[in-house]
Amino acid sequence: MLERLYYSSGLVFPAIATAIALAVSHSLDPYLAFVATSWIIFGLLGLSLDIIWGRGGLLSLAQTAFYGLGGYFGAVIAINMASEWGMTLVWAVPSGALFGAVVAAALGYIIFFARMGELQSTILSYTFTLLLWAVTQSFKIDIGKAAIGGDNGLSNIPGIVLGFGSKAESLDPNQTFATVVAISAVIYFFTRWLMRSNFGKVVDCIRIDVEKTELLGYDIRKIQVMNFAYSGAVAGVAGALFALWANYLNPSLFSVPEALLVPIYVLVGGLGTLAGPFLGALAIGALSFWLGGGAASGQTTLILGAILILLVLFLQNGILGALGQFWRQFIPDPNDAARHAGAVKIDTEVLETILTDAAEQAGPAKELDSNNLFKRFGGVIPVNDVSREFAPGKPYALIGPNGAGKSSYLKTCVGLYRPEGGSIKLGNDDVTKAPIFERVRKGMGVKNQKPQVFGENTVEQNLWSAAYARTKEGQQATAISQKVLGMLGLEEQANAQASALSHGQQQWLDIGMVLCLAPRVVLLDEPAAGMTNEETRELSLLVRTLAKHTTVVVVEHDMEFVRTLEGHVTVLHQGKLFAEGDIETLRANDAVLDIYLGRREHV
Amino acid sequence: MELDYLVTVLLSSLSSASILLIATLGLAVVYGLMGVINLAHGEFLMVGAYSALTATQIGIPYPLAIPVAVVTTMLIGAIVELLIIRRLYGRLFDTMLATWGLGMVFNQAAVLLFGTVSPGIGMPQYNFKIGGYSLAAYSIAMILVAAVMLAFVYLLMTKTVYGMKARASIQEPKMAQAIGIDSSRVNTLTFAIGCGLAGFAGAILLPIIPATPSMGLFFAVKGFLTVVVAGPVALTGSALTALGLGGGASVTASFMTSVVGDVFFFLVTALLLWLYPMGISARWRRKL
Amino acid sequence: MFKVTNATGGYGKTTIIRDVTLEVKASEIVALLGRNGVGKSTLMRYATGLILAKKGSVEIAGARAPAAPAKRARLGLGYVPQGRFVFPRMTVTENIAVAAASNGFDAKETVKKMLADFPLLGPKANDLAGGLSGGQQQVLALARALAIKPKILLLDEPTEGVQPSIIDEIAGVLKRINQESEIAILVAEQNLDFCLSIAERAYVMEKGSIYLETDRESLSRDKELQQELLGV
Which of C174, C224, C165 is nearest to C198 (CA)? Predict the structure, then answer.
């Protein structure tokens, strides 16, 4: 009971809160209703930030820009339409949403398609807001009946009118409150649904590990822009509602104190909780209401600044975060299962069917071909003119002493490093300049040295998000991920968080994710690292089976493991191809032994 | 177009680029040598301006009021580093939020202490003429001040032991500790120096930019952009971006309106970040 | 001289080394052997204080080492990390000078001495360290560690990615400073020949613990152990 309530708390409590707010809306003191309406609107604005920050991972300081622009745009439409048609909501809210979304998409396009660093993105979004502040001070224009007057602002904005026709009346404060609560509730529940949908799951993956999400073949830039646009739309709705509530807008919407309030709402309530920002706005609003003034000004700003510092230093997860942590002590921990997990045992029959299914769906295996590949870092050249072709059949092992450039070569093939010279072909496509996700979509499956799993997500979700990247269809993805889950024997740990698994199990989960992609070329960087002897044997079996169906390249230190692969072996030394052959020939080769042992004659 | 007009525009643009650089250097030092973005930088500039103003009001001559401002801001900076920044090492965005909050606190405190309008310091204005155009001598002198400040910071960071320690600490933090550098002490000093540079900027600009609680904001915003566009080679990068962006915006502004100048600044910044997502100096091989 | 007792530690929740105890006596060169991933680098970082100790202690020149890495350096712990980690945007001279100055030694004199000891660095003295080749960076990292006048020097994979001529030079320098300045040395290596050429004694690690202590003679005789160690 307590457990089910915990997992649906984001649904139940907001629903109760909405019901109470609607129930008491008639009997509230009109002035309190009036002020409280603004708190709800600020909560909505906070929600817009939580979408892009708490879920998307970008601290955007442009939310008040979308909010202000949505407000202005919605207000201009409302002023022009209301006198004839009434019903300001249908004019202002969608146009505010649309405008907010379009502007956010444009800004997001610059940020995400340029692959800007986190800091650069945040600073750019901040500047955008402040630029608007500067520009709107002197921006004067008449659009129909609406007169935008620079720092004189835009007045004569009608209130919320629900009736149609020129005679329709504005709502009174209590009705306005109820309407705003209803709209916000709709948006909140829709957002909650969206963030739990397939789209939202990918957004979560991007926040947790951008690189891994791209390695699964998602065009992360597109998804991030879409998420940003949605957050802009929510901010735009909040702005439009604010315009109708205040009947007046001026450039101070874009000011620094306004922009500051939004992250405070989110942090007070709890980052990433979606409901938190409403709680935060309510708490801050109520605080400044009873401190006097009602709006954030004077001493209130001083206190808010101090609150922000204290929150960052001492209460990272906000009110809801702290409550959730407290609650979790009383419900069973799904991660318990991970502690009792046994050793992984590969079911080869299931593996075979997975691989034949994959070949059916994704086509025949592809070859990987690198030509004169060259990569340097300052004075160090880890990949020096390497030409090698890899074909399906038997696994390829890349070996060589520490610092020989094995991992760098693999990373250059994957696209994690950009080569200065040479080319890489995947099947018949030249992918030298292709972004990582495109290589993955063309059939490249990659497992890096460290296990890359989405630690906050469950084991099942990890596999699902890999399968979904390929199928783009939820049901099919579930079927595939269940099959791989079964093959790994991790059914009991399905609902545990991936971060709770042991190092070796995370390696297996990562390999499972690669299998979900049905790759046509598989690149594995030291997959046996951190595995027990038993696990290493299983891995060897898996790699050999895999190589029958696809091209497999393994970078490995562990010579015993390489021997069990019974495949081609390529020795790299100082960034160059040094020797090739099967493992027995190479073991007999003095030159190879020497570079391992550091003897000079042959090096 | 006449030559004297062109020279005037060029000189005044160079002057506003220099003013931007003066206001930005402290930020560049803190970002370049600690990896921290101090969103309260503008407010430190404001504190410097008010310290100098208060000093002149109690009878200290203006040239001596400048060191007063530097010492005050350095002290406050050191305290802030010890109380807040130190707890947030490696958490870039948390530091930004905390310093943002700090900026708000400073700003409001200044409003409460000094009100929103404040008297000038009453320095006589010297002007000189180029052809038919008149220029304020003090503004033009800022070009020289910027150059001296830049040289000072460069020498401080490359020729002193502290400077070497600071650079080592940001480039390889763990190795810096392993060879015996007490990184947290170095960081306290670096942050204090950054704040002191802001205080110096506020004080030296006082004759042309009167002290108001929100004076820092204007510079700070452009400063953040300058530093972020500049990237890891903070000093050279910032000098170059301040010259290009600040000068460019000023030239644009003098031919059109100041709003167009601001739009220019933002758009060029966006373009540069698009071309160099990690800053223009990400691949430079230079010391600072 | 240098003692690690019951060292237990790792990264985050993961424990990588367990109850490792070893000792390097004054002016002794000891090798730390073992395959990749057995915890050699982790042990080195444990000794420098760069990772959190869950248990155990470190003793440098008779004194119990404080927690802060900077204080251990001042007690005389020199460290050359795997991957070198020179300060890339500082010149060769500055890399050495900052190490000397941070420990109260004369920077100019130290630089002069190091450039004389490592002729390879001379022509590069004013180049940025990031532009050096792997071998040159390795020599610089060694010079930087020696600039703090260590009593015990920890070397982590000093031959990784380094060309043979420089490996020779490094081995020569290590032997010389060991004899002249009586610096004790602990070197973690995969390059067996390099170890055999300088070390008298060796610890062999397996799965985060020390499972064998041996000397040069038995190591160079025991081919089976060699093969197992290197995974060849």
Answer: C174
Interface of chain B toward chain C, CB-CB under 8 angstroms = 161, 164-165, 167-168, 171-172, 174-183, 232-233, 285-288
Q: Do C101 and B167 touch (CB under 8 A)?
A: no
- Supply the range of the domain harboring residue C202: 2-230
Token pair of B10, please?
Answer: 């060029």
- Strands C29-33 and C184-188, by their bridges, are parallel
Chain B residue numbers touching C68 (CB-CB < 8 A): 177, 182
Residue B73: pLDDT band (50, 70, 90) is very high
Q: What is the pLDDT of residue A167?
A: 73
CATH dotted code for A348-597: 3.40.50.300
State the average pLDDT over residues A99-119: 92
**Residue of B83, B104, B229, B262 to mutate, testing the A interface (most A Cβ within 10 Å of its Cβ):** B104
Contact C90 B180 (CB under 8 A): no
CA distance B125 to A42: 48
Instruction: Report whether A85 contacts A22 (CB < 8 A).
Output: no
Please report, for chain B, the start and end positions of each structural domain, with discontinuous segments joined by +: 3-215
Q: Per the CB < 8 Å rule, is B88 touching A312? A: yes
| Residue in this structure with the two tokens 């001289």, named with its chain if needed | C1
pLDDT band per the 50, 70, 90 thresholds, residue A293: low
Q: For the domain that residue C62 is a member of, what is the CATH number? A: 3.40.50.300
Q: How many residues does chain B have?
A: 288
Interface A-B: count of C-beta contacts within 8 A:
111
Query: Identity (one letter) of the amino acid at A37?
Result: T
Rounded Cα gap, residues A127 and A254, in angstroms: 11
Domain boundaries in chain A? Answer: 2-253, 348-597
C213 CB within 8 Å of a chain A CB: no
Helix (H, G, I), strand (E, B) or coil at C138: helix
Instruction: Report the alpha-carbon distance of residue A467 to residue A481 in Å, rounded.
Output: 6
| CB-based contacts of A563, cutoff 8 Å, min separation 6 | A583
Q: Give C162 to chain A, closest Cα distance, Å.
A: 8
- The reported pLDDT for the residue numbered A298 is 64
Alpha-carbon gap: A402 to the closest alpha carbon of chain C (Å): 6
Could you tell me the maximum CA-CA distance found in chain B, to the nearest angstrom? 63
Instruction: Write down the ipTM of this complex.
Output: 0.91
What's the pTM?
A: 0.85
Interface test with B, best of C79, C95, C102 (most B CBs within 10 A): C102
Q: How many CA atoms lie within 13 A of B8 on its CB side?
A: 17
Contact between C145 and C78 under an 8 Å Cβ cutoff? The reply is yes
Q: Which residue has the tokens 């001070």?
A: A137
